[in-house]
Design goal:
alpha+beta, 2 helices, Bacterial Protein-export protein SecB, about 140 residues, about 25% helix, four-stranded antiparallel sheet, about 35% strand
Amino acid sequence: MPIKRFELTSIDARRFTRHGEKPKNIRIDHNSSVTLVTEINDKEANIDFRFTANYSGLGIIRIEGSLIFEGDASALANQWSTKNNMPNEVANEIHTTIMNNCIPEAMLLARDIRLPPPIPMPKVNIRSQKKGGDPKGYA
């Protein structure tokens, strides 16, 4: 069940505060949602999606697009139109693809409008060199 094509159709990034205003707590919520599933043929379905990174009153990043899913397209489109959901393994693959493609784009957009990156940044912990330890300073 591979994803055949992925494309972005709309990008919207907004900052609601001025430069220098510092909110106390910033909560960043990610959400990806499928908005429409349409059957192209028996083996391919077009899936429209929306990715959102919401910065709790500080700003918002919205990315919309579509992808082509290769698999049992008629069953997927029928289940989507009747129950508004899809099988877990298909949903897993689709949402993973959306996140893997939209998070890097959201990081660039966040940098451009001076919002924190929409992922937790790793903490750097450099330890001092100990006698007899690793000469490169790794512990």
